[in-house]
UniProtKB/TrEMBL annotation:
The gene is LOC108816772. Pfam families: TAXi_C, TAXi_N. This is Aspartyl protease family protein At5g10770-like. It comes from Raphanus sativus. Belongs to the peptidase A1 family. PANTHER family: ASPARTYL PROTEASES, PEPTIDASE A1 DOMAIN-CONTAINING PROTEIN.
Length: 247
């Protein structure tokens, strides 16, 4: 980080920002990437003296709505529920670890041993689109979801999405709620836009994927974070979730 000086006095520390020249991937059309991790070159780390390494955001359910990204502790919801940031064994220490202890579909908690999540560990990542689950956890979620959706017409899968539906001609659809339970008793109910990924009305897919290896880390991706305020309190060692942060 460089400093801007005037009359030998430091006025402002300017964050180091890079420029990507060849960006590609499954989800194309991304304008850029703002690093929000725990590494020393991330924006929160570089501006910690100004914003105390605290930031929050809300990802909207669709492009027609507006989300927000706030650095510092201003505007935090009174409905926040926190879980601790855990240590994860990963190729990069810049990720924020979370302890997932359970998943529910409808009002029923899935029968998934806690060790399924604790052995590889889990992270929350705004840069990963779709949540990745351990190979023992994803089939349990998929099976429970398909049972709740058995009255709807199925559609072919697409890319990493293997459970899809055709809602053509339907005026309304009843989607079962999906909730994640984290260490400390924090339960996060996903918005319905965080449960299904819509390509078009004839191909609406369960917005989760399974890891191929049980040792691969689980990832709580950005689709599942839609409409909620997510707060990263790095000095406090915690991540918070609150509903209705945006539409």
């Amino acid at each position: 980080m460089d400093s801007v000086e005037k009359s030998n006095k430091v006025l402002q520390r300017v964050p180091t920002i890079g420029c990507g020249q060849d960006n590609y991937g499954l989800f194309r059309g991304i304008a850029g990437l703002l690093g929000l991790g725990r590494g020393k070159f991330s924006f929160p780390s570089q501006t910690a003296m100004t914003y105390d390494n605290i930031f929050s955001y809300c990802l909207p359910s669709s492009p027609q709505y507006t989300g927000h990204l706030t650095f510092g502790s201003a505007g935090l919801s009174n409905s926040l529920k926190y879980t601790t940031i855990s240590s994860v064994v990963h190729e990069s220490a810049s990720f924020y670890g979370l302890d997932i202890v359970g998943i529910s579909v409808g009002d029923k908690e899935l029968e998934i041993p806690v060790t399924v999540f604790s052995t590889p560990g889990a992270i929350i990542d705004s840069g990963t689109v779709i949540t990745r689950l351990p190979p023992q956890a994803y089939p349990a979620l998929r099976t429970a979801f398909k049972e709740k959706m058995s009255n709807y017409k199925t559609a072919s899968g697409r890319s990493l999405f293997d459970t899809c539906y055709d809602f053509t001609g339907l005026e309304s659809v009843e989607i079962p709620k999906v909730s994640f339970s984290f260490k400390g008793g924090t339960v996060v109910e996903l918005d319905f836009t965080g449960v299904l990924y819509v390509f078009d009305v004839s191909q609406v897919c369960l917005a989760f994927a399974g890891n191929s290896n049980g040792d691969d880390i689980a990832i709580f991706g950005n689709v599942q974070q839609r409409t909620m305020q997510v707060v990263y309190d790095v000095p406090g060692g915690r991540v918070g979730f609150a509903p209705n942060g945006c539409m």
